[in-house]
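pasting Anti-sigma factor antagonist for the record, 104 residues
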Amino acid sequence: MTVHGEIDMDSGPILDDALSRQVSAEPSRLLLDLSSVAFIDSFGLRILVRAERRAREAGGSLRLIAPTRAVERVLRLTGFTLMVAVHETVREALDAEEAPVGRE
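structre below
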């Protein structure tokens, strides 16, 4: 899934709904491309935390793809990158999922 613009109180509910539907449809993986996201606030971060939890509870995972510098900074400062893998490309994220345990 590719996200554009900002992830905040205004757009967050729309993204939350879309992520929830995606996890229900394909619970094994949730790849979220953040390369076009200019801004994320605490409300948006809560949406990502909820998406990670839903994916994990469904037996899957959330992986973030190419966050912008501003977004990556927020994710890193809040410790979110300790919970969720961040990859430069979709291919890198898919390869990491397919890797044998212990290779990452």
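The chain has one domain: 2-98.
The helical segments are 12-25, 42-57, 69-77, 90-98.
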